[in-house]
Amino acid sequence: MFLTISTTGSPERPATDLGFLLHKHPDKSQTFSTSHGTAHVLYPEASVERCTAALLLEIDPVALVRRGKGKGRGGAPDAALAQYVNDRPYAASSLLAVALSTVFKSALRGVCKALPERAAEPLPLRIEVPAVPARGGVELVGNLFGPLGWTTVDVRPVALDEAFPAWGESRYVQLVLEGELRLADALRQLYVLLPVLDDAKHYWVAPDEVEKLLRAGEGWLADHPERQLITSRYLSRRWGLTREATDRLELVRLAEADDIDVEAIDNAVEDPAPEADDAPAETAATAATAEKTVSLAEQRRDAILTALRDAGAASVLDLGCGQGQLVQALLKDVRFTKVVGVDVSVRALTVAARRLKVERMSERQAERVTLMQSSLTYTDKRLKGHDAAVLSEVIEHLDLPRLPALEYSVFGTARPATVVVTTPNVEYNVRWETLPAGHVRHRDHRFEWTRAEFRAWAEKVALRHGYAVRYVPVGPDDPEVGPPTQMAVFTVAGTKKTAKTAVTATTTVKEEKAA
């Protein structure tokens, strides 16, 4: 199994800089052990004008069978000979992709302390792979590499037997890529697309493969026209992992389209740019100094934090915490001495822990935060004894018949002094240009309420469980359709802090009925 990477240079920018970028010295060959054989790195040529690095992977077929436990192509229990006699030692596949990530680990990350500026800029590259299995043929290879910035994608089919042309072509191709790309980008593309072309992996695809795919696909996969095929094949058609990766890549695509961070996108549709007729007139100087538009997700978090501070809460439950954005914001305020993130999804909690860098927290900071798995439709004694709870963009993800169970779990059993609930205002959906009429904001939303429907539900909950409730608009409060997000702040009735809010809620409801 063989691959070469070549570049050209000049006396001012010698081609031998490739050795620094790959972290492999051109003047010597090096050997590395992999789980299925031995990888060799050598330089057939290394001069100022041209430098070529070669990766040769020698596969141990016995080790491959033992580690693979009979799985994978050619590994069926009733085909013993096929386990040892196959294309694995010769055709570029997931084995070569793993070797790339092992041998050129720093280069894949784009890290080069010696020449950081060279690592960050495009280089004239030529990559050759003599034998690539291509399930889908020459056309598919072109479709995969063509949109990635290569000037030349030369794909030549390999005949089954040159002595017998009538036998036709094999499923293997010779691949040559030429163009100016960052070395890290080129290596990441190969890392993902070689297993995709082979459409088989030599190891079991675990959930962490989603993270590997997203890291390697950063900057190019989210907008790739063959994104769905790449994701499905890379994850060995495991439906759950493919859907997870697809959803996260869609968030990346939307974030890149709006030039905002992925963290700013959640279940709610983001604020669109103002229409030309509605935008206030600005001078050039004013426009130049205008602050960056604050996303709806950020406005929502700010409104929640304000409500919690006003309530004097110190211990807060984030129910349905997802990837931990609100937990992260709460931890930045020392007034919140205990923050508990709760979610039914283990994957979401794992992502949240990574976002919060829980493993690297100081002992004092770690004592402030807890992440735990729990379903909000079942009572959980661990949720008792907290000052406040937040249900931010959560209730609309439940089927309506399950809402009473959540209501009892939160308001009846956990019973914090303050409960903050946010949910989309369906009336505002007509203001989203990109949202088709009659569609909800997120495909997982089971319902979206009008302001009247939300307040009717909130009033019943408050009455049943002894809370007072007030309402806070989040986002631009349109005079016709209201704000994009509606928020209710419940506080236990009978306390000094709730006397005013109870009156406010009652007055509001009466005004609406009168209207």
What do these coordinates show?
The strands form two sheets. The chain has a seven-stranded antiparallel beta sheet. It has a seven-stranded mixed beta sheet with strand order 10-9-8-11-12-14-13, sandwiched between helices. The chain is built from 19 helices and 14 strands. α4 packs antiparallel against α8 (183-198) and α9 (208-216) runs parallel beside α11 (239-258). The protein has helices spanning 17-22, 61-68, 80-84, 94-103, 105-108, 116-119, 137-145, 183-198, 208-216, 227-234, 239-258, 284-289, 296-311, 325-331, 346-356, 363-366, 403-414, 451-465, 496-514, and strands spanning 2-8, 30-34, 37-46, 50-59, 123-133, 152-159, 169-181, 315-319, 338-343, 369-373, 388-392, 418-424, 467-474, 485-492. The model is unreliable at 69-79, 264-292 and 497-515 (pLDDT under 50). The chain has 515 residues and is of the alpha/beta class.
Sheet with most strands: 7 strands, antiparallel
Mean pLDDT: 83
Q: Report strand order across the widest sheet.
A: 2-3-4-1-5-7-6
- The oligomeric status of these chains comes to single chain
Distance between the termini: 76 Å
Topology:
Layout: E1 2-8, H1 17-22, E2 30-34, E3 37-46, E4 50-59, H2 61-68, H3 80-84, H4 94-103, H5 105-108, H6 116-119, E5 123-133, H7 137-145, E6 152-159, E7 169-181, H8 183-198, H9 208-216, H10 227-234, H11 239-258, H12 284-289, H13 296-311, E8 315-319, H14 325-331, E9 338-343, H15 346-356, H16 363-366, E10 369-373, E11 388-392, H17 403-414, E12 418-424, H18 451-465, E13 467-474, E14 485-492, H19 496-514
Parallel strand pairs: 8-9, 8-11, 9-10, 11-12
Antiparallel strand pairs: 1-4, 1-5, 2-3, 3-4, 5-7, 6-7, 12-14, 13-14
